[in-house]
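Feature request, filed as a ticket because there's no other form

It would be nice if the structure record came with a short human-readable summary line next to the C-alpha cells. Right now we just get the raw output. Example of a typical job, pasted below so the devs can see what we mean:
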Amino acid sequence: MTLEEKVSQTLNHAPAIEHLGIKAYDWWNEALHGVARAGTATVFPQAIGLAAAFDEDLMEEIGDAVSTEGRAKFNMQQKYSDTDIYKGLTFWAPNVNIFRDPRWGRGQETYGEDPYLTSRLGVRYVEGLQGHDEDHLKAAACAKHFAVHSGPEPERHHFNAVASIQDMRETYLPAFKACVQEAGVETVMGAYNRTNGEPCCGSKTLLKDILRDEWGFKGHVVSDCWAIKDFHTGHMVTSDEVESVSLAMNNGCDLNCGDLFVYLKDAVEQGKVKEERLDEALVNLFTTRMKLGMFDGEKTSFDNITMAEVDNRAHRKLNLETSAKTLVLLKNDGILPLDKSKIKTVGVIGPNADNRRALVGNYEGTASRYVTVLEGLEDYLGEDVEFRYSESCHLVKDRISALSKGDDRISEVKSVCEDSDVIFVALGLDAGIEGEEGDAGNEFASGDKVDLGLPGLQQEVLDTAIASGKPVILLLLVGSALAIDDSKINAVIQCWYPGAMGGRAIAETVFGDRNFEGKLPVTFYKTSAELPDFTDYSMKGRTYRYMENDALYPFGYGLSYTSYDYSDVKADCDVLGKDGIDLEFNVTNTGKADGRETVQIYVGVSGVENAPKYQLKGFKKVALKAGESKKVSIKLPYEAFGLYDTEGRFVIPSGKAKVYVGGQQPDGRSEQLLGKKVTEIEITLP
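Raw output as currently delivered:
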C-alpha cells in the first residue's frame, strides 16, 4: 500500500483498494441489545434490563441470536454491494462501564453498578457475539468505553475523570480485564473523557501499559466517534490535528471513528508517527477482517445464514421470554397477580402506556412488530374487558397540545380513573430524553437526569390516580433508577426499556402467566441529595458497595409471586486455600407458584483501607416448581477474597472474611423489605 492507502484504512469508513482486492468496509456497527440502525432486527430489552435478569447463560444466548442476525444482514448487504455505515460485522458492544451515578443518561447501556456482575454478563455477551467457531469469528465484539466513563454527558468532550488507583482497580477496570482475558474480545473502544489527565483514546497508561502490556490484548483499539478531535478542541492537550492523531496512534489507537486520521499522512511525513507503527495498526485491523473471513473468497460456516433468521418466530419467542425475566417487582401489597375474571374495566394512563420509544431505549434496531403496554394488555384481555386510556401528559413538558393552557389531559385522567376497576400508570422516560448527548434531546440535561424524580407532570398524574381510590399498578419504563414514594401505590414494577415484546411480557406477568424473577442491578436511592457530586469519580458513598445510607430499593432486590428458603448452607473448609471455597446448600420454593430464584453470594473482607463493605462474588439462577427443593453448588475462587489496596496492589489480608448466601444483599434494608436474612459463614484468611 501507498502511505495514502494505509492512512485510508485507519478510518471507520475504509475505502476499497481495488488493485489489492480489498473491498470497502465501514467498521461502525452497533449491537447493544440487537443489531441496530440498519433496518429490521430483533430488539431485545435494553442492556440494563438484561442485567436485571442476572443470567449468564441468557446473555450468551442473546449474543448468539444477535450475531446470527448480524451475519444474515451482512450476507444480504454484501450480495447487493451495500457497504454503508452499520453494515459490517464489527459490533461496538457491550458497554461495560460502571453505572456509578443514577443521573447518567447512558447508564441504560450498561450492566449496572457492580464490577462482578458487569464482568460476568459482559464476558458471556462477547462470547455469544463472537461465537466458538475454530476458524472464524462470527462477529467482532467491542468492550467500551475504556475507561472510567459515566457522565456527565454535556462535559464528556473536555472532562477529566479523576479516579484513585484503588478505584480504578477495584471498580472501573475489572470488566474490561475480564472481556480481554476471558472472552478474548476483539476490540476495545476508548472513552471521550480524560482519565487522570490523559485523553482515553490517546492514553499511554490505559492503551499501552494496562491493555497491551499488562493484560496482553491482541485485538485492535478504536476511538469513540470524533473523540480524537477533542484532544485539541476540548481537552487542550494538543495544539492541532496532527498532534492529536500522533498522540492517539503512538499510544495504541488503531482505528478512528471519524475522519481526523487523514492527518496521519502529515504526521508520518513530519516524523511524528513512525510508519512502522501505522503498519502495526493495519496488521491489527486486517487481522480482525481476516478472522471474520472477509478475504480471498474465503468461506465461513456463517455464509449461508439468511434473512429468514432475522426477527423470526424463534427470536421473538426468546425476546418475549427475556423481557419477562428482566421485570423487577418492587412492591406488591397482594394485588398481583390480577384475576381477570374480577375486572370489568381497565384504565391505562401515562405517557409511556403507548410509547414505542419507551420499549427500546437507545442504540436500537427496527422490530417487525412492537407491543406497547396498552397493546399488550388489550391483546391479553381481549373482548372480555373494557379499556379506558389517556396519554395523560408529555414526558417532560407541561402540555401535549402546544396551544393549550397546560396540563391539558388531567380531566381525561380523572375520567379514566373514575370508570376503571384497576389502573395501570405507565410513567418514566424514553431514549428521546435519556441517553447520549446529541442523541437524546438536549432540552433535558443532554441525556442525563437532573434529579431522581418523575419529570414534567408525571407526578401529578400519579397522584391523581392514587387520589381516585382505585387500585394503582405503577409501571416504570426507564433506563435508570427513579425515587418514587410507593406508600400509597398497590404495586410497582421496574420495566426498564423492555424490548419490542415488552407490552406482552408485562401483561402475561401481571396476570400470573409468568413469575417475576428480575433483581435490581443498580441501587435505587431515596434522593439525589444524598449522592456525591455527579463529577466526583471517587466511589466513596456510591453504589451498594460503599454507600452508608439505606437504599430506597437495594441492589439485588426484587419480589416474586413465591418465596424461597435456604437451608443446610455449608462450606467445604473454614480456612481459605489456593483452591478457594466450595459452597453447597439447598434452595426450596416454599410458595404456591413456580419460579426462578436468583442465588446471590457476597463476600465481605476487612483489613484494607477504603475497601467495599462486601461485594457480589457469585450468582446463579435456579428454576424451582412450587414446593420443589434443589441442592446448589457454587465455587468461590481464591481471588474472590482479595481486595485492591490504596496503591492498586491485589492483596488478600489476613483475618476473617464473611460469606453471605441468599437471594438478596446482606443489608438491613433488604431484610426489612423481604422479611428474611441471608446465611452468614465466617472464613479464616491465613
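Something like this underneath would help us a lot:
The CA atoms of residues 262 and 516 lie 52 Å apart.
Residues 3-296 form a domain with the TIM Barrel fold (CATH 3.20.20.300).
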